[in-house]
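Running co-folding for pyridoxal-5'-phosphate.
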Amino acid sequence: MSLQSITERLHAAEARAGRAPGSVTLIAVSKVQPPERVEAVLAAGQRIFGENRVQEAQGRWPDFQARYEGISLHLIGPLQSNKARAAMGMVDAIHSVDRVKLAETLARLADEIGRCPELFLQVNTGEEPQKAGVLPGEADALVARCRALSLPVAGLMCIPPADEDPAPHFRLLGEIAARNGLSGLSMGMSEDFETAVALGATHVRVGSAIFGTRVAPV
Ligand SMILES: *Cc1c(COP(=O)(O)O)cnc(C)c1O
């Protein structure tokens, strides 16, 4: 478990970028990790966790939440509309809003429930056919639609193509956010979170570098 070394690297990256210490939110991505690894990271003080699947999160977080105060869950994986209600009851942020239909479902549920998690709109910066996310050219329209629905849009999220330099993707995400007046940037994972911080990330999503290699791929 290397939460401490990742936290130190994050603080160093913040300092190099002239950012205030602790200004970047570290989301510990616990998807698929065995419970004892998650427990060790909880015991070390981490309270913000990322999960990919609503069902997996529902299965194990209530137990941790009964034993540890102040846990905050972020949904970082694709969200099906039929899981939206469960997600909204459980998480403080959703990083994967990528289509108008989902935004409309979230808005309807938010009206009904009386609260809404912080939302990040996922942008498919590499325009990869198999990857979720709105295309860069359609991002402005999705932001506008979410605002018209009074949804709390905190920012944008991306997952750069695995085999490319992530920096141009992080820059593109920053440009789209800036022209839409959005301050949140959810970008950077185990391999590239320091680059992401240098390019303005406000939230980094780090899994294997904290918990170790995932036992099963997701
Ligand atoms: C799995 C995952 C991460 C974490 O990946 P690591 O390379 O293990 O840090 C971050 N973001 C998303 C959307 C993921 O699915």
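Result summary
The mean pLDDT is 96.
The pocket of pyridoxal-5'-phosphate is lined by residues 29, 31, 52, 76-77, 159, 189-190, 205-209 (CB under 6 Å).
Job closed.
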